[in-house]
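From the methods appendix. Each design record in this collection lists the tokenized structure first, followed by the designed amino acid sequence. Records were kept in a plain field format so they could be parsed without special tools. The example shown here is representative of the layout used throughout.

RECORD:
FOLD TOKENS (801 positions):
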């Protein structure tokens, strides 16, 4: 296969060789004349461009003869555009004017890393997201970023999906939208299914790996994902995006905007619907969402309102596929009840202000409110005692019925609201850049369960709640971060954050235990680092950061309140180099993440038989990440990334259930494990992307992904493992401007073209049962997997008016 790729590449390269024309230019401040290193130069409609070097110079070479549109952008300056004809004589000069209007980018500045911030990060722009945005959830659009592993319950990237970065799952990854927390306050998770097609309203995403900089919301324990929604457009527009594909997948999106009205006002809107039958049996998804944004853009002040909402119904595929069925029935779903569904609605309201208060001071404030409500419905067959629902046995004649078929709904009804802010001060000489920021947020969540049907009616009515509890969580933080240029191009960075948490419970949990109680935490999270911008364009950096994190909801509700696990703590060291040039770019970094009291599942049971998490004293993640791209010619671009890591737990105790000769529960047996791999942490993750542009408006891409083997638990047993996998996707993109519309884009995405059978996610549990020899016993391990689909496709057309 490698030989075949090389032969194809050589043949196509010689066939499509092009003339070598260049565009040379310089980017500088229109007022001071100073060069603007790092300015982005884009060939509009081509998907390629360059970055200005330390002297503000750039080169776009190997260009065919013709007309081109250039767009130059730099944070804090007005975007500049120019039409040029190639071949070009002389050098272009772009004199960038400082922005008199507060740019929308400042809305996320307080929680983001900048070019001189000594941490590991990557920015994914709107054009990159749009290439694969044919209906799959946001994690799959980020699949080819460094150290990323994605998974899907339904097996096709629609419905319940998730991601891990450096082995850390979504409960350990901080996510913000315009600097506003998105993680669920109790579980710390992010449920992308509640935000279908959100990528269609995203301008860019910054992923910080490791602790990163201070942000709002959940503690960053593996990475942070900072999302900025669409910014204003100068001109009115309308777009339609429609796609279809395997498993009856459909996506329909309509977008429109007014452009700037009277130079001050703009309104944008999106409406989306996504549906899919899923790869797994009955694992359908029916998803709907909208996004509306309106703003006032004054000379020194911006006021903006965002309202977005998502509604989802998905058939549950939570149980996975038993290991023994992977070869014969990979699409198996144990649920058969026709309404075994998850149903949830979530509305978001954001009011955002950004302003220039003076030449040195900018401000950003935001108020937010999220209203979520929904339930999942389950059919429970005749294997559950009525007493588990607080119902007395039912007497019918001489028969006393203690079990019966039940349909239940478990509800969540919550409100999340608060405010965030940041103040940015830049000294007159530009050497000091400081941000004071923070936020205060409250979560008010009701959890309750209903029985809506019983095969044999007892002394209960429909909608009676068999459990009901409320949780209130107050989360507040304040941070001060500053970058100071101590010497020419040598920057010192400091970041101090305080975070306080009050968490209160009241009521009965679903296991009928009273969980009333409260907890309080105070965390101090300092960060410090250095960065150096060398004359050759490289930026070197190193940093040390501390993060602390409270337990999640289940750690409180499943454990007796007198035995709540301790908070987790992380010490993170990052060091690396970044480099960008016209023809190639790369980054390389080393990291060490030292955990104290990390919470893991050990198999330990609480007093009602639920699995609880326990602290392990010492664990760590260490690795190297490489990322780069090279433009070999106007037609060929190669890119990719590679991460090698070692992820270890020093020592932990595993607990397995023991059943006696009569198959009765006889307790648990403890086994100590030392120096084992952390679950779901592959030692190698990599991507390789080949882009070929035989024509100006045609792009063909091969996208390769490799994920090393992962263990399903922390025992490092070879019979509890996810096998390594390599997948290859093919993408065809073609654009044209027929005249009657502004543009039409056609995309075909063929996933897993070699039909690999693989599973990126799963779970396991083990127990001892009586053995064949009298008095003997054997350990039984049951593994469950979430298989991904074989070869499948998505095809779409986007029309711009």
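DESIGN:
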């Amino acid at each position: 296969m490698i030989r075949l790729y090389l032969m194809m590449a050589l043949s196509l390269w010689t066939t499509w060789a092009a003339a070598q024309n260049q565009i040379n230019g310089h980017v500088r401040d229109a007022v001071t004349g100073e060069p603007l290193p790092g300015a982005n130069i884009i060939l509009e409609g081509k998907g390629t461009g360059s970055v200005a070097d330390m002297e503000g110079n750039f080169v776009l070479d190997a260009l065919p003869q013709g007309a081109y549109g250039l767009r130059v952008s730099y944070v804090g300056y007005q975007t500049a555009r120019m039409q040029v004809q190639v071949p070009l004589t002389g050098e272009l000069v772009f004199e960038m004017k400082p922005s008199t209007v507060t740019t929308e980018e400042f809305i996320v500045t307080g929680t983001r890393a900048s070019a001189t911030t000594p941490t590991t990060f990557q920015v994914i722009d709107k054009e990159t997201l749009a290439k694969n945005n044919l209906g799959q959830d946001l994690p799959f659009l980020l699949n080819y970023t460094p150290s990323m592993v994605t998974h899907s319950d339904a097996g096709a990237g629609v419905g319940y999906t998730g991601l891990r970065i450096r082995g850390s799952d979504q409960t350990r990854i901080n996510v913000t939208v315009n600097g506003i927390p998105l993680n669920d306050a109790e579980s710390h998770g992010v449920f992308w299914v509640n935000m279908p097609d959100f990528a269609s309203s995203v301008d860019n995403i910054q992923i910080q790996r490791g602790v990163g900089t201070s942000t709002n919301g959940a503690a960053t324990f593996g990475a942070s994902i900072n999302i900025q929604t669409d910014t204003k457009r100068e001109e009115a527009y309308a777009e339609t995006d429609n796609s279809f594909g395997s498993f009856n997948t459909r996506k329909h999106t309509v977008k429109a905007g007014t452009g700037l009205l009277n130079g001050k006002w703009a309104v944008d809107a999106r409406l989306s619907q996504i549906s899919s039958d899923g790869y797994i049996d009955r694992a359908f998804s029916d998803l709907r969402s909208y996004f509306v944004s309106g703003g006032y853009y004054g000379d020194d002040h911006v006021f903006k309102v965002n309202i977005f909402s998502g509604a989802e119904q998905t058939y549950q595929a939570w149980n996975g596929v038993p290991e023994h069925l992977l070869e014969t029935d990979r699409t198996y779903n144990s649920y058969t009840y026709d309404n075994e569904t998850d149903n949830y609605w979530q509305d978001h309201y954001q009011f955002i202000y950004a302003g220039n208060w003076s030449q040195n001071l900018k401000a950003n404030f935001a108020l937010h409110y999220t209203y979520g409500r929904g339930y999942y419905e389950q059919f429970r067959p005749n294997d559950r005692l009525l007493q588990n629902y607080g119902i007395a046995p039912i007497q019918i004649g001489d028969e006393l019925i203690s079990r019966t078929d039940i349909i239940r709904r478990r509800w969540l009804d919550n409100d999340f609201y608060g405010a965030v802010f940041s103040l940015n001060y830049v000294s007159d000489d530009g050497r000091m850049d400081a941000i004071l920021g923070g936020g205060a947020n409250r979560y008010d969540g009701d959890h309750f369960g209903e029985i809506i049907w019983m095969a044999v009616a007892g002394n209960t009515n429909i909608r009676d709640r068999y459990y009901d509890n409320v949780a209130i969580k107050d989360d507040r933080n304040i941070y001060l971060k500053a970058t100071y240029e101590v010497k020419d191009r040598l920057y010192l960075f400091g970041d101090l954050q305080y975070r306080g948490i009050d968490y209160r419970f009241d009521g009965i949990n679903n296991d009928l235990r009273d969980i009333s109680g409260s907890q309080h935490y105070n965390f101090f999270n300092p960060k410090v680092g250095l960065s150096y911008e060398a004359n050759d364009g490289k930026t070197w950096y190193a940093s040390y950061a501390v993060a602390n994190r409270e337990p999640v909801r289940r750690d409180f509700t499943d454990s007796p309140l007198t035995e709540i696990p301790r908070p987790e703590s992380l010490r993170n060291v990052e060091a690396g180099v970044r480099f960008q040039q016209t023809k190639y770019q790369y980054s390389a970094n080393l990291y060490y993440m030292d955990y104290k009291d990390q919470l893991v599942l050990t198999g330990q049971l609480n007093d009602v038989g639920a699995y609880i998490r326990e602290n392990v004293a010492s664990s760590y993640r260490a690795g190297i990440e490489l990322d780069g791209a090279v433009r070999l010619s106007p037609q060929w671009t190669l890119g990719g990334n590679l991460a090698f890591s070692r992820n270890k737990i020093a020592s932990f105790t595993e607990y397995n259930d023991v059943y006696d000769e009569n198959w009765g529960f006889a307790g648990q047996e403890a086994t100590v494990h030392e120096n084992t791999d952390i679950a779901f942490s592959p030692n190698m993750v990599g991507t390789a992307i080949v882009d070929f542009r035989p024509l100006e408006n045609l792009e063909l891409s091969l996208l390769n992904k490799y994920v090393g083997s992962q263990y399903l638990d922390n025992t490092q047993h070879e019979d509890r493992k996810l096998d390594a996998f390599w997948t290859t996707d093919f993408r065809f993109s073609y654009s044209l401007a027929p005249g009657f519309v502004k543009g039409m884009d056609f995309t075909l995405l063929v996933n897993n073209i070699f039909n690999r059978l693989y599973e990126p996610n799963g779970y396991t549990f083990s127990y001892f049962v009586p053995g064949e020899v009298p008095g003997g016993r054997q350990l039984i391990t049951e593994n469950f997997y979430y298989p991904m689909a074989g070869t499948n496709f998505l095809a779409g057309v986007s029309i711009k008016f």
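APPENDIX NOTE: The CA atoms of residues 27 and 94 lie 5 Å apart.
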